[in-house]
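Fig. S4 source data, part A: sequence.
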Amino acid sequence: VGDVNDTSLAATVRFGKTSFLFMGDAGIAQEAALAGSGSALDVDVFKLSHHGSRTSNTQLFLEKTTPSVAVVSVGAKNTYGHPNPDTLARLGNIPVYRTDTQGRVAIISDGEHISVKTER
């Protein structure tokens, strides 16, 4: 069976002109398969794979998705060290919202634009 994370569900949600990609716990192999599939991956909001682990969110995948906002769902002071510093560095200038430091992250869309609100 391999790693159960490799069976994670990924979903793209489109609302008007805005789009969101939720990657679950998918790893590098799943990202590579999606990147090479011809699927439309260019999104506005990207919820990082596997809590921002070093085994996900490759440079190739980020180049295919070109998000304007990234979200990391991760527990504060988790024992895995998520999100990984190298993963965060690959995001470059993309604004990153983190549940461990900012609390709840809400992405609001009217179908044309997105806005982000955080709440501790």
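Fig. S4 source data, part B ends here. The first helix runs from residue 28 to 35.
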